[in-house]
């Protein structure tokens, strides 16, 4: 919740959840959040939650602090143009479209 609370405090109005928490796995292992950055005060977020911008070492710092990973919707997930929001909605094995969970904050 700490990561989501930080996003909300910075003006984020919606997040999208992916990862094994959105599957039928009996014991999910992780979650991934794609956050709508269109209304976020990025300067405030950079000061209040700098880990939201830390993507090195396979996002180890985010995983340690938040138990999951956070990506801005408008960020590039797969060069040259695939945005995280689109990337989250594509099955990594089949390439087929899939659903994700959206939450208003």
UniProtKB/TrEMBL annotation:
Pfam families: DUF6932
Domain of life: Bacteria
InterPro entries registered for this protein in UniProt: DUF6932
Protein name: Uncharacterized protein
Provenance organism: Hymenobacter amundsenii
């Amino acid at each position: 919740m700490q990561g989501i609370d930080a996003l909300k405090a910075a003006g984020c109005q919606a997040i999208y959840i992916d990862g094994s928490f959105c599957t039928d796995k009996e014991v999910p292992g992780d979650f991934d959040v794609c956050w709508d950055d269109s209304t976020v005060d990025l300067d405030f977020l950079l000061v209040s939650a700098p880990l939201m911008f830390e993507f090195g070492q396979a996002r180890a710092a985010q995983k340690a602090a938040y138990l999951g990973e956070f990506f801005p919707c408008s960020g590039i997930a797969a060069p040259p143009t695939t945005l995280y929001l689109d990337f989250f909605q594509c099955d990594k094995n089949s390439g087929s479209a899939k659903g994700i969970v959206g939450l208003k904050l």
